[in-house]
Amino acid sequence: MTEQEWLACTDPKAMLVFLHGKTSERKLRLFAVACCRRVWHLAPHDDSRGAVEAAERFADGGGMAADLRHAHLPAVQVFYDLREGRQADREAARAACSAAAESGWTAANLSGEWSLAAEVAGGGHAGPARADLLRDIFGNPFRPVSVSPSWRTPQVVALAQAAYDERELPAGTLDTARLGVLADALEESGCDQADLLAHLRGPGPHVRGCWAVDLLLGKE
Domain-by-domain residue ranges, the chain? Predict the structure, then answer.
């Protein structure tokens, strides 16, 4: 995949295959969570939603693998209970199961298993939305951005942490107004990275795992 193809791609499976071996389990799991939160209304069962929330906590160091297992098993039961129900409900529950899967993920197996979420979010129409999420979380792999320690002032770090913590739920998206204020503070600290500033000021969607916020918080 070339840089131009990455920036224009609407096929999240192809993008995940390209990312194989180039990213962390945390970011892959947060991508899965973001996809589930896009279709939160299709997963009305507490067990399915609980699985997504457990996966999100685990991605950021909260809980243990056993917690994922405890969240995963009830979500699996919801999926089987819905096997005769609406396709959207079944796929939403199945996506929640995948988000809470106990085993570590790689981009290779996600590219196959995440087709589960494709149907949940509206079939073929969901591809561009999920591709945008991938670009928010993984940025542009062809143009890695580095941050000078001098830019990470106490104000910048505090604003980045607030943007990360104070999300809009249940969608899980980051507040674009907060990110705009963060970009202003970052620029005032001396940041001259146009791509970083532009992303923070962009319309998004921005979710947990956003490459720009992660960079400022030192998350991988």
Answer: 3-138, 149-217
